[in-house]
Amino acid sequence: MSFPRACIIGHPVAHSRSPVIHRHWLAELKLEGDYVREDVAPEKIASFLAGFATSGYVGANVTVPHKEAAFRAVTRAEPVAATLKAVNTLWLEDDRLIGTNTDVYGFLAHLDESLPGWNTRTRMAAVLGAGGAARAVIHGLIERGISRLVVVNRTRTRAETLAAELGARVTPAGFAELPQRLKEIDLLVNATSLGMTGQPPLDLDLGPLKSGAAVYDIVYAPLETPLLAAARARGHPAVDGLGMLLHQAVPGFERWFGVRPKVTPALRSLVAAELGARERAQ
Ligand code: ATR
Fold first, then answer.
1. CA-155 nearest atom, ligand 1
2. Ligand 1 contact, 132 CB (< 6 A)
């Protein structure tokens, strides 16, 4: 008997924790199915996706560096994916490839869970970074009515391009302006790769940060980044990146396997333990 199979498409993809998440849910919900890794090189991605309907998979997640290629490959993209021009979740309808982007959902779901009512307390936010992850974060904040946003990026022109695209609510800035901005904001989000294992640290003095401002780091390896540790030490509410990873997986699982799974403390502990084991092995 055949059972539904999904995969995570990336390059490299060996590090992906998505199989742990989806297999946990399959076992927990006693569903027949599987979820595997597909390492697809950039020169092969267009043909892989063009032939997806005959691959035997019911759907897929897409990670770095293929989210833009997946957007180009779909017959239809849901509005959020069209806005971000990036697809991270695929499925088939009548053999046609359809895509969405669940990063915005994952970012907001974890923020809502961690700091209920955060949006009523957030007048101004700063987002560090101007890549794909930052775009998802910024769209989530705009969706929730945050009226003033500062996009801080090493390459200032990238922040300027993003701000020009998103309108008057978004102000571009370079890192040199950040200390001044920290005094005014209610939420700081790191959407760069800084602080991730193997990347340079995010060297940021939180001294000037407004009292009570929340700090969200979308980096989840390590789970407790130096940024989050510094925020907690100063009494700021701190939100880690693991919840975003877990929540963004929910809509795809529901679509492929037919049941909406839950992000539970047990799942969080399982993935955190896996990440910890990897950290220790490095
Ligand atoms: P993603 O799609 O995952 O967001 P990306 O498009 O490569 O990845 O973006 C990475 C972000 O991290 C960018 O904002 C990048 O800044 P630049 O636009 O200046 O490249 C930021 N970043 C990466 N390494 C950095 C570093 N060493 N110092 C400062 N910012 C860095």
1. 19
2. yes
Q: Which two tokens stand for residue 260?
A: 């909406």
Residue nearest to atom 7 of ligand 1 (CA): 131
Question: How far apart, in whole angstroms, are the C-alpha atoms of residue 174 and residue 133?
Answer: 18
Assess whether the previous peptide bond of 261 is cis (omega < 30° from 0). no
Peptide bond into 65 cis (omega under 30): yes
Q: Looking at the structure, do residues 119 and 230 belong to the same domain, yes or no?
A: yes
Cβ of 158 closer than 6 Å to ligand 1, yes or no, is yes
Statement to judge: residues 190 and 130 lie in one domain: yes
Measure CA 261 to chain center: 18
**Per-residue model confidence as pLDDT tens digits over 214-268:** 999 999 999 999 999 999 999 999 999 999 999 999 999 999 999 999 999 999 9
Q: First and final CA of the chain: distance in angstroms?
A: 40
Task: Give the distance (Å) from ligand 1 centre to CA of residue 192.
Answer: 5
- CATH code, domain carrying 22: 3.40.50.10860
Answer yes or no: do 97 and 128 share one domain: no
Domain region containing 69: 5-102+249-281
Q: What's the rounded mean pLDDT across residues 34-39?
A: 98
Same domain as 231, residue 172:
yes
Respond yes or no: is residue 67 known to be catalytic.
yes
Same domain, 156 and 114: yes
Mind listing the pLDDT tens digit for each residue in 74-129? 999 999 999 999 999 999 999 999 999 999 999 999 999 999 999 999 999 999 99
Q: Domain count of the chain? A: 2
Distance 174 CA to ligand 1 centre (A): 13
Does one domain contain both 75 and 204?
A: no
Is 234 in the same domain as 151?
yes
Residue 1 clears pLDDT 70, i.e. is over it: no
pTM for the full predicted model: 0.96
User: Exposure of 5 by Cβ count < 10 A (0-12 exposed, 13-18 middle, 19+ buried)?
Assistant: middle
Indicate if ligand 1 lies below 6 Å from the C-beta of 96.
no
Active-site position among 44, 67, 85, 210: 67
Tell whether ligand 1 has an atom less than 6 A from the beta carbon of residue 192: yes
1 Cα: distance to centroid of ligand 1 (angstroms): 46
